[in-house]
Amino acid sequence: MLLNLLSEVRRFPIVIAAVLILLGAMCILTARETGGRVEYVGGTIAQIPPGCQGYAQTLDEQSFVFYSRGASWRVPYESINLLEYGQNVNRRLAAAVLISPLFILSKARQHFLTVGYTDDQGKQQALIFRVNKNDIRLLLATLEARTGRRIEFQDEEARKAGRG
């Protein structure tokens, strides 16, 4: 019995280490969920190359942050004066021709977020992102809450998609 107890005590640090690693991984994954995967498609910021893929983070309570391997950019929420959401909807004609005529009924939607703000010199700036479809609602809701600004929708389809 004493040997069994000693063997359990030896395994205890391993169990604690495994639990701590698991909790740490969960914290990191949860923190990444306060934003979304995006691609910078254009705007007024020359330091970010168009097509730069990264992550738009809204975890910071003071600033909206875009970061990627190639660039990063921080915009204070208080300087944001425009949040606009729109979609680009295309029929899947190539897939319909090559695979099945049923694809002509489906639509490929791309989700775009425009963040307009005033920089330190008082000039109007804009960041335009293509947002992953699974991340758009969370990103819109968080930006609306952090900035106190309402999302402007480009059309009724975008309003439906952005509000759920």
Tell me what the structure shows.
The chain is an alpha+beta fold and 164 residues long. It folds into two domains: 1-32; 35-163, PH-domain like (Roll). 35% of the residues lie in helices and 37% in strands. It has helices at residues 2-32, 93-98, 136-147, 156-163; strands at 35-43, 52-57, 63-68, 72-76, 80-91, 107-118, 124-131, 152-153. Strands 4-3-2-1-7-6-5-8 form an eight-stranded mixed beta sheet. It is globular and about 35 Å long. The model is unreliable at 22-33 and 91-97 (pLDDT under 50).
Distance between termini? 60 Å
- The total of helices stands at 4
What's the overall geometry?
A: globular
Derived from helix and strand composition plus strand pairing, the structural class reads alpha+beta
| CATH architecture designation of the largest domain | Roll
Strand content: 35-45%
Sequence of secondary-structure elements = HEEEEEHEEHEH
Overall structural domain count = 2
| Main sheet attributes: strand count, strand direction, barrel closure | 8 strands, mixed
Radius of gyration: 22 Å
- Strand segment count: 8
The average pLDDT is 77
CATH class descriptor name of the largest domain: Mainly Beta
